[in-house]
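Run CRISPR-associated protein Csx3 through structure prediction, thanks.
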Amino acid sequence: MSTYHINIEGDVLKVKFDTPASGDQIVRDAAARLEELIESGEVKGGRLLKIDGPASLPVCYLIAHKVSHLYSAIAIFDPKIGRKGYKTFITAVSHSPAYKIGELIETDEPQKDKINPKVVICGPKQSGKSCLREGLKQAISNIEGAPYPYVITACPDGEGAWFSEAAQRDLELATRLKAEYKAKFTPEFAQKAAGWVRIANTTLNIIDVGGRITDENRVIMREATHAVILSGNKEKIPQWQEFCQSLGLRIVAIIHSDIKGKEDAIESELPMLTGTVHHLIRGEDVSGREMVQALAKVLVGLGK
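Sure, done. The structure for CRISPR-associated protein Csx3 is below.
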């Protein structure tokens, strides 16, 4: 079974993640599928190829390598730009004066116009928010038919989406790189991050923010639609509830992060998910934890 789905429909290459796997397996499967399409003549080249769907960075490079010499130009779908309700593509490769790099190609293909969930993971610092974020991403990817979880790191702490996997391989290196990438949480950064959240238009968006109730977090979080509160200190949960409610966010989960715990505990599922998640430690795969699995199902259900 392939881990990456690729089909050609007219002049549009439709791509998406399929069976969950590591990045190296995904890029190998994508390569095999592209070679199959090229050898069969389904991907045969021409004036313009439009690519529609999510792809990892290695897969993006792979697709460009495999097909850029077959087409005069290649354009990539960007859900954040163009006419409201219609798909628009950005020209990223061009061998022809007919297409300019960065040129927008508007189509008449409808784009779903709905409010997609933008779920902010918030709570006091050192509660394990980034660990939970990465565990959720993997758990959601393991749910059949679930949307791709698009993650926005809205905190300049240097711990991007790359960190968790890197830490599992080499914690010392990952920690050193995080320290090098760390920057100050300025009003300018907050405005920039708020813009990322505002224009996020994928089916499921997860936003990781800093661990303090500040004006900067207020600017960022008010662009979200839902909130998950994670706290290592139960006494601080009410102030985060009040903060989220003041921004009009629907709280879908309140979770106690028990660093010394041995197992998860789900206390309630309705009207919101509550309980405990244990031992959120950098470098560990937490996607199989009971609470993480339950929260993944909650988030997937928001988009239905």
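Residues 4-110 form one domain.
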